[in-house]
Amino acid sequence: MSKAERVLKEIEKMTERRFLPIVGPEKGEILARVVRETRPKRVLEVGTLIGYSGIIIGKEFDKEAHLITIEIHPDEAKKAEENIKRAGIHSKVEILIGDALEVIPKLKGPFDLVFIDAEKTEYFQYLKLVEDKLHIGSVVVADNVGIFADQMKDYLEYLRSSSMYSSRYVEVGDDGLEISVRL
Q1: Cα separation of 76 and 153, whole Å?
Q2: SS3 55
Q3: How far, in whole angstroms, is CA 140 from its chain's centroid?
Q4: What whole-number distance in Å separates Cα of residue 175 and Cα of residue 88?
Q5: Residues 6 or more apart from 158 whose CB is under 8 A from it?
Q6: Res. 17 pLDDT band, cuts 50 70 90
Q7: Is the peptide bond before 110 cis (omega within 30 degrees of 0)?
Q8: Which is the CATH superfamily of the domain at 3-182?
Q9: Helix (H) or strand (E) holding 167
Q10: What is the DSSP string of 86-151?
Q11: 42: closest CA among 108, 96, 112, 89?
Q12: Staple partner for 47: which of 87, 102, 114, 117, CB 3.0–4.6 Å?
């Protein structure tokens, strides 16, 4: 078992004792598969929490890939940094502390992959802020689009009706991921 896999298992065990809204192993495997298939060089994650999904993404990277992840809570960002270092992928990850709505406009693109797992009512705003930093073939993955679909109707309607994206829902239990490719 790799360092990254060990840290992921520790975080999963932690969630058995107290609730932590991590992507979890099932959706995590789907996210890892997207990373393996797309082989992104630049990834943006909106919502770091304690680094679980960042580790899933980072463990699939090749040497040139880089993850920028945004977390609004400094304590969580610190814990994420510790977890990511313990997982052995720290050199490929940059954690930015702040409100994603303020941080995203300051970032330079392009991004090959964007993973959104933060404030559910702001998914559409995150997408619109990063949209000019995407290229044809960029992939956007959003978590919790099953259980929180009502809170992100604008996001889902835009992706599913826009000629700019090919979008599909991947169901996992009572929840799921929306995987969208920029056309």
Answers
A1: 28
A2: helix
A3: 9
A4: 30
A5: 124, 127
A6: confident
A7: yes
A8: Vaccinia Virus protein VP39 (3.40.50.150)
A9: strand 165-172
A10: HTT-GGGEEEEES-HHHHGGG----EEEEEE-S-GGGHHHHHHHHGGGEEEEEEEEEE-TTTTGGG
A11: 112
A12: 117
With contact defined as beta carbons under 8 Å apart, do 137 and 39 qualify? no
Tokens at residue 7, please?
């840290």
Distance CA 92, CA 97 (A): 17
Q: Which two tokens stand for residue 134?
A: 């995407």
Tens of pLDDT, residue by residue over 86-144, are 999 867 899 999 999 999 999 999 999 999 999 999 999 999 999 999 999 999 999 99
3 state DSSP class of 47: coil
Q: Which residues pair with 182 in a beta bridge?
A: 165
Tell me how far apart the alpha carbons of residues 123 and 129 are, in angstroms, rounded to a whole number: 10
The pTM score is 0.94
SS3 assignment, position 52: helix
Identify the sign of the CA torsion 74, 119, 64, 51: positive
